[in-house]
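Researcher: Checking consistency across runs. Here is Enterobactin synthase component D again:
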Amino acid sequence: ARLPEGLALAASDPCAEATGLWPDEATAIARAVPNRRREFAAGRRAARRALGALGHAPAAIPMAPDRAPHWPEGVTGTISHGAGTCLALLGHSRDWAGLGLDLEPALPLPDDILTTICTPAEQAALAQDAGGLLSRRLFCAKEATYKAQYAQSRRLLSFHDLEVTFDGPHRFSAELLTVCPPFVPATRFAGHIVEADGIIATVVALPRL
């Protein structure tokens, strides 16, 4: 599946040494465990590569008080670590109201968390899932949607606040089941899903209206 026009995607290795951090970024994770430092640094390296692809000068991407990346003026984006890789997806904020990206291993979720992740309708769909990966796809789709809407709402949703349906092999929609200004209940967020090399990746890109 192709990314929407106007977005930049870049990758970095979360297992590599925690290099390339700017001073404000390094301070934010000075007390973090080594694995967290490596993941954080990989996210910032990937994000700066994506900034360059957008034609933006290199810049610090410090951690905001809510722990989300604080993007340079005129830019919005999302970072995800998972399944042994790290990706950053960025766009100009004049074009995009919010971006969400999630990476997950192509493995079923543990049975004991399915009721936490899935609505009753989604649980019913799992009963028809011959391949066993629907639960992970649902989780991945919700995570990307949460990140995309958060750029506007600044609200943390629960898993049961969204209900996901798949519209084909590479598309899904997530329906909002609660009040979450500026979004109204029944808002549907469109997303893309791709599976390759043992990884499930989801993207939700909200155009600026």
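Researcher: Does this match what you'd expect to see?
Model: One thing to look at in this run: The longest strand covers residues 96-105.
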